[in-house]
Write a structure and sequence with these properties.
The protein contains 14 helices and 18 strands. The chain is α/β, with parallel strands linked by helices and 548 residues long. The chain is globular and about 80 Å long. The termini are far apart. The N terminus is likely disordered.
């Protein structure tokens, strides 16, 4: 592999707006499902390059790519084999470099994904560790450990995997006898790295430099609160600190990463995926010398309702204020049930452990609520993340043939959890039948698309001023003029959520079913659903301009 495709001079995003990340609109691209440029049924970088104009028209400031590296795809690319190359199904390193530059030419920055908690079991480090055997330096980069019991047959700890099931897998010695166990907080194909080892820290710092040298504007850090483990391997609850989550030693790692990011021209940002329920400990990662931003999963997981949304917004803004970090707002991602489906259910909250087959949903109610939620989050102060396809109002695909499901969350649950593939189905671009322009006519896509998506294609929605795509485009256009702190307004209705930003901008959300009278206003800027006379219908949102 040639890692010197570019000249050694650094390529930098523009530094004209060093605070771009504080209010940016960031679009998440799941490469396998965005667009197929070479006609093999799988999305690739050629497909992304062909549709950069679409993202420019949508109004995004940056693209966040899920892992695009060589990988066996045991977990959708989050089992990385080589950070310094591109998965051959997606393209080449040279294509990635061209994409970064072509996007920059359109004013769109690139954010990449890194997965520091673990690597693929096919990574050269892990293969070397297996070959070297117990007690070797190669194994010190991971968590190899003898088993408990007389013959070492018992797992070292009873830590629970994020994907359910055991977190330890036993190796086999060269002579065929059972060997040591190794730790994997996700699947056995994703061995956890030992972040107490200097090689691990040094390697990831070099990975950051490799991609910053190639012009990326930021790094999204997967499972950012899980890297450090207690070397004593206590069971959960035996000590005050959790043995695998949100350990204080993590902050030294991210301070070193921030120093590297700050050494480059143009603001290079660190974005954390941090599932930490304590909001104060969550924002500790956002201190000025650590990460720039982190995903706000609290809002994403909240049930539909004005009081629920307001509590989340208030808590999020209050927690971010002391560290001076902007909030982030996101309705879904590649792991989460799409809003159109989630908001149409009786239980509109989200939790991984509650996912099951056959949960009923009202698609029309869900669409109305998803559109209203999109208008709401676009009006909030901070940065906004959009998962590909949400701008089209795509539902979760819940009838994928069981034999085609690839997500390990499905298999490790014994087939009870439907997994996450339902939100990863390839996008519909144009046409009356699958593959809807994602691939050439007649090409099977890596996951099948529903046959009734013709009205949801980009081409169809571009012709409809009332479409979800048109709503997103207009909201993102108007969003650039929204500024100022948030001030709550009381409309005297428990189902109403209303706030002002600046002198004249007001956002109103009606989470109830009955129409809501809008405040007196000079101009109606945007509605997620047409007004009912002069009132805002139920499960809808509006932006208005009032007299200052």
């Amino acid at each position: 592999m040639d890692t010197d495709v570019l000249p050694r001079t650094r390529i930098a995003p523009p530094d004209t707006d060093p605070l771009w990340w504080r209010s940016a609109v960031i679009y998440q691209v799941y490469v396998r499902s965005f667009a197929d440029g070479n006609g093999d049924g799988t999305g690739d970088l050629a497909g992304v390059r062909e549709h950069l104009g679409y993202l420019k028209t949508l109004g995004v400031d940056a693209i966040w790519f899920n892992p695009w590296y060589p990988s066996p795809l045991a977990d959708g690319g989050y089992d990385v084999e080589d950070y310094r190359d591109i998965h051959p199904e997606f393209g080449t390193l040279a294509e990635a470099e061209l994409l970064i530059q072509e996007a920059l030419a359109l004013g769109i920055r690139t954010i990449i994904d890194v997965v520091p908690n673990h690597i693929s079991d096919r990574h050269e480090w892990f293969r070397a560790a297996l070959a070297a055997g117990p007690g070797s330096p190669e194994r010190e980069r991971f968590w190899f450990h003898p088993g408990k019991g007389e013959n070492g047959d018992e797992i070292p700890t009873h830590w629970v995997s994020s994907f359910q099931g055991s977190t330890w897998t036993r190796t086999t010695n060269p002579d065929g006898t059972p060997g040591e166990w190794y730790l994997h907080m996700f699947t056995p194909e994703q061995p956890d790295l030992n972040w107490n080892h200097p090689d691990v820290r040094r390697e990831h710092e070099d990975i950051l430099r490799f991609w910053f040298d190639r012009g990326v504007a930021g790094v999204r850090i997967d499972s950012a609160a899980l890297l450090i483990k207690d070397p004593d391997l206590p069971e959960v609850g035996e000590k005050l600190d959790h043995p695998t989550e949100d350990r204080d030693e993590l902050h030294d790692v991210y301070r070193s990463w921030r120093a590297i990011a700050d050494s480059y021209p143009g603001t290079r940002v660190l974005v954390g995926e941090i599932w930490v329920p304590d909001i104060v400990r969550f924002t500790n990662y956002l201190r000025p010398d650590e990460m720039h931003t982190a995903f706000n999963f609290d809002f994403l997981a909240r049930p539909w309702g004005a009081a629920s949304f307001r509590r989340s917004i208030e808590q999020t803004l209050a927690a971010h204020a002391p560290v001076g970090a902007p909030s982030t707002w996101v309705l879904s991602n590649h792991d989460v049930t799409r809003p159109v489906t989630r908001y149409g259910r009786e239980d509109t909250a989200f939790a991984f452990l509650k996912k099951r087959f056959g949960v009923p949903t009202d698609p029309q109610l869900g669409l109305h609520r998803a559109r209203a939620a999109a208008v709401l989050v676009a009006a909030l102060p901070g940065s906004l993340y959009i998962y590909q396809g949400d701008e089209l109002g795509l539902p979760e695909v819940e009838d994928l043939p069981r034999e085609l499901i690839q997500d390990p969350m499905h298999y490790r649950s014994g087939g009870i959890d439907p997994g996450r593939d339902g939100c990863r189905v390839p996008l519909p671009w144009a046409g009356a039948e699958p593959p809807f322009g994602f691939s050439p006519v007649g090409t099977p896509t890596w996951l099948p698309q529903p046959g009734d998506w013709s009205d949801l294609t980009v081409a169809a929605q571009e012709q409809d001023p009332g479409s979800t795509l048109s709503l997103y485009r207009e909201a993102l256009r108007l969003r650039r003029d929204i500024d100022g702190p948030l001030e709550w307004l009381d409309l005297g209705d428990e189902d109403a959520l209303a706030f002002r930003r600046g002198d004249s901008f007001v956002c109103v959300v009606n989470t109830g079913d009955l129409p809501l009278a809008l405040p007196a206003h000079e101009e109606l800027l945007l509605t997620s659903t047409p007004l009912d006379g002069a009132a805002l219908p139920g499960n809808a949102a509006a932006w208005i301009r009032i007299t200052p």
